[in-house]
Amino acid sequence: MTLFVIRHASAGSRDQFDGNDAERPLDATGRAQSRAIAEALGERPLSRLLSSRSMRCRQTLGPLSVALDLPVEPHAALLEGSRATATVELL
Prior knowledge:
By secondary structure, this protein is mainly α. The chain is about 40% helix and about 5% strand. The longest helix has 14 residues, at about 30-40. The termini are close together.
């Protein structure tokens, strides 16, 4: 099995976002990065797209989700601050 671990694309500074950090979206650079991820992986035989529930993480996988016709599955074990053991168990 091949596993790709991708950090979320650029979402600007946490300090410059007025709101809940989990809702901070990608910026223009991040949207371009997410399209590049889709171009790089869009023809791979991927079976699942797992993500943190954070907006920027789900948006990072958005174009890949469309390219592969796979849903982005939010998972609590991938949320910032989650227990490392939960993440390892998921993987």
